[in-house]
Amino acid sequence: MLGPVILAASRSDRMRRLVSAAPVTKQVVDRFIPGETVDEILPVIDELTGNGLELTMDVVGEDITTPEQATAARDAYLELIGRLGPLELGTRAEMSVKLSMFGQALPGGHDLALANVRPVVEAAAASGTTVTLDAEDHTTLDSMFAIHDELRKDFPQTGCVIQAYLFRTEEDARRLAANGSRVRLVKGAYKEPAEVAHQHKHEIDKAYVRVLRTLMEGEGYPMIGSHDPRLISITQELARTAGRKLDEYEFQMLYGIRGDEHLRLAAEGHRMRVYTAYGTDWYGYFMRRLAEKPANLRFFLRSMIGHG
Known about the structure:
- The chain is α/β, with parallel strands linked by helices.
- It has helices at about 1-10, 15-20, 25-30, 40-50, 65-85, 110-125, 140-155, 170-180, 200-215, 230-240, 260-265, 285-290, 295-305; strands at about 55-60, 95, 130-135, 160-165, 180-185, 220-225, 250-255, 270-280.
- Helix 1 (about 1-10) packs antiparallel against helix 12 (about 285-290), helix 8 packs parallel to helix 9 and helix 9 (about 200-215) packs parallel to helix 10 (about 230-240).
- The model is unreliable at about 305-308 (pLDDT under 50).
- Keywords: FAD, Flavoprotein, Nucleotide-binding, Oxidoreductase, Proline metabolism.
């Protein structure tokens, strides 16, 4: 399996230098990350929302080693929210945040991450939108869920992400569905050991459907993070069975992947949210996109060969 190899490469400084130096890299990266600054991303936001799509915005960058970097990550999100405010998009443009960017892995990281993310959640709420806490590797999840619970005391619209491949997720889904949370369900993109996660695609897919059913039958708001046509069809069937209206759940897909499907679902009346990342520290995000889907890797390799 190439996925674990690529994920390992995402943590390699040597591979970072090699990939970054390849002449074709920027062209390919632009497919997934359409800008490095807020000024560059605003026209993309305008285009997507003009086509009836919604967004969740991610400022890329996870290798935080100092409290000052965590503060800078907080300030980057505050700048984004400030620039989005005059557009009056409301929940059509929300934020996605990784708590690792806010200092979660540093000494005292749980409290530091909560202190840094709270102003972002407050600013988003003041602008009429919200924040979703992204899931990272399994060792970080107890902290993430505790921060999610704390934030929801004042900002109940704060969302979180669960990963179908983890054994714990079915129990997490039952708890979150019962308390009315906004929950994005994804398959999972981190290399996890067999002790905590399913390792085979068919097992992950079955777990995804089990968790999806729990969310659809619950009291929360399901956000379906998948590009899989079969899972999209199953989602629609489960939603009908649960009696959910089209605005009582949504689909989410990555910018640059299956763009025609984004537009098709929106045209059918579904809420279709595009996960749109931007920023200069794109390497880790880009490598995970390659690891998740073989077609992405083939696209990159063909581009490199074509420009060699």
